[in-house]
Write a structure and sequence with these properties.
- This is Pantothenate kinase.
- Keywords: ATP-binding, Coenzyme A biosynthesis, Cytoplasm, Kinase, Nucleotide-binding, Transferase.
- Its main location: cytoplasm.
- This protein is of the alpha/beta class.
- It has one domain: P-loop containing nucleotide triphosphate hydrolases (Rossmann fold), CATH 3.40.50.300.
- The N terminus is likely disordered.
- α8 packs across α10.
- 39% of the residues lie in helices and 20% in strands.
- It has a 9-stranded mixed beta sheet, sandwiched between helices. Strands 3-4 form a two-stranded antiparallel ribbon.
- The structure holds adenosine-5'-diphosphate and the ligand CC(C)(COP(=O)(O)O)[C@@H](O)C(=O)NCCC(=O)O.
- The ligand CC(C)(COP(=O)(O)O)[C@@H](O)C(=O)NCCC(=O)O binds next to α10.
- The site of ligand PAZ has 11 residues, from α10.
Length: 344
C-alpha cells in the first residue's frame, strides 16, 4: 500500500472512532503510536478509556455548582468530562510543572544565578466556539488545587485585540480574530515579562458584550505559579527573526473538533446569546435580539461563521495544531473522544 493511501486509511479510521492501523492493545486500552507518511511521529494517541485511566488517584473535588460557574454559554461539559479528561490532564500538568522547575533550577545552578520564581506557561488554542474558555477555566481551578502551585492566572488573548476604532481605520473589522487583528507585539511583551518573573502586569480588557476593548479598563496579573494563556491565535508561528507567544509556553493544548460540529456549536451559542446576553441594551448585538426575525438572526450568525470564523479556522488556526503538546479531539456532543500527546 502506498504511504499516501495508508495515511488516508488511518485518517478515515480515526474519524470513524476506531483504532488506527498499527494501533496495538495495552491491556484493554487502545494506544496508537501515530504514523505519518510511513514514519513514526512524536505523538501517542489514546482513546477516552485509556486516557481516563491515567487519572490514577487524582481526586474529583469539583461540585456541580462550581462547574456551572466555569461553563461557557451553551457548553454542556459535565462532571464526567472533568473526571475522565481534565483530572488526568491536571495530573500530567502537575508532573510537567515539577519537572520544569527542576530543569530551571539546574540551569540556574549551572549559571550561578540566584533563585528566581518563574511561572509555568500553558497555551490553550482552538477555533472560536470550540470551548477553549471552559477548558481553560477548568484547568485553572483544578491546577490551583495542587499544593505546589496555588496561584494560577488565566488571560485570554482577546484582551490584545485592537480596539474596533483601530480595526475600522485599518479596514479589517471583518477580520476580527485573524492574526493582524491582535497587537501581537504587546502579547509577546506581556508573556516575556511574566516569564522573566515580573511581579505585576496590567493588561487591556476585551468585553464580548461590548464587542470591543473597554476604554480605561485593566486586568492585573500578579506573579502566578502558573499562567494559562487562552486564545485562537496562541500557537501561531513567529514571523522570521521574531518571537511568538508560543515560544514561551512550557505546555500547549489544542482543542479540536470537526468543522461542521464547531459551526453548529457557534450557531446554537449565538441563538442562546440572542435569548440572553443580547437582551442587554449594552450588547453590541442588541438589535439582533430586539429588531430582527429568527431566520434573519440565524442567517447573520451563519454568515459571520462562514465568512470570518471558519476562514480563520482553516487558514490560521487548524494549521497550528501540530505544534500543540496535547490535542483534545471532541465529538459532536462536546465530549472528548481521543487525546493526542506529544512525547518528545
Ligand atoms: N457575542 C458574545 N456575547 C457574549 N459572550 C460571548 C459572545 N461571543 C462569545 N462569548 C463568550 O466568550 C467566551 C469565548 O468564546 P470564544 O472566543 O468563541 O471561545 P471558546 O468557545 O472556544 O471558549 C465564551 O465563554 C462565549 O460564551
Ligand atoms: C473575539 C474572538 C476573535 C475570539 O478571540 P479569542 O478570545 O479566542 O482571542 C471571537 O469571539 C470573535 O469575535 N470573532 C469575530 C466574528 C464573530 O463575531 O464571531
Amino acid at each position: 500500500m502506498s504511504a499516501g493511501r495508508a495515511v488516508r486509511r488511518e485518517a478515515a479510521a480515526r474519524w470513524a472512532g476506531g483504532p488506527a492501523p498499527g494501533a496495538h492493545r495495552l491491556g484493554w486500552a487502545i494506544v496508537s503510536h501515530a504514523t505519518k507518511n510511513g514514519f513514526s511521529t512524536p505523538y501517542v494517541e489514546l482513546d477516552r478509556p485509556a486516557w481516563a485511566a491515567l487519572r490514577a488517584a487524582t481526586p474529583l473535588s469539583l461540585t456541580e455548582q462550581e462547574l456551572d460557574v466555569l461553563r461557557g454559554t451553551a457548553d454542556p461539559t459535565s462532571l464526567d468530562e472533568v473526571r475522565d479528561i481534565y483530572l488526568p490532564l491536571s495530573r500530567l500538568l502537575n508532573l510537567y510543572v515539577n519537572a520544569t522547575r527542576q530543569r530551571h533550577a539546574a540551569v540556574r545552578s549551572f549559571l550561578g544565578d540566584a533563585d528566581r520564581p518563574m511561572p509555568f506557561l500553558i497555551g490553550v488554542a482552538g477555533s472560536v466556539a470550540v470551548g477553549k474558555s471552559t477548558a481553560a477555566r477548568l484547568l485553572r481551578t483544578l491546577l490551583a488545587q495542587w499544593p505546589d502551585h496555588p496561584n494560577v492566572e488565566l488571560v485570554s488573548t482577546d484582551n490584545f485585540l485592537y480596539p474596533n476604532a483601530v480595526l475600522q481605520e485599518r479596514g479589517i473589522m471583518n477580520r476580527k480574530g485573524f492574526p493582524e487583528s491582535y497587537d501581537r507585539r504587546a502579547l509577546v511583551r506581556f508573556v516575556s515579562a511574566m516569564k522573566a518573573g515580573a511581579a505585576q502586569t496590567e493588561l487591556p480588557v476585551y468585553s464580548h458584550l461590548a464587542y470591543d476593548i473597554v476604554p480605561g479598563a485593566v486586568q492585573t496579573v500578579h506573579r502566578p505559579d502558573i499562567l494559562i494563556v487562552e486564545g485562537i491565535n496562541v500557537l501561531q508561528p513567529p514571523s522570521p527573526g521574531h518571537l511568538a507567544v508560543a515560544d514561551f509556553f512550557d505546555f500547549s493544548i489544542y482543542v479540536d473538533a470537526k468543522v461542521e460540529h464547531i459551526r453548529s456549536w457557534y450557531l446554537d451559542r449565538f441563538l442562546e446569546l440572542r435569548r440572553t446576553r443580547f437582551e442587554d441594551p449594552r450588547s453590541y448585538f442588541h438589535a439582533i435580539a430586539t429588531s430582527v426575525q429568527d431566520a434573519e438572526a440565524r442567517e447573520f450568525a451563519m454568515n459571520t461563521w462562514r465568512t470570518i470564523n471558519e476562514v480563520n479556522l482553516v487558514e490560521n488556526i487548524a494549521p497550528t495544531r501540530g505544534r500543540a503538546t496535547l490535542v483534545l479531539y471532541k465529538g459532536a456532543d462536546h465530549r472528548v473522544q481521543r487525546v493526542r500527546l506529544r512525547k518528545t
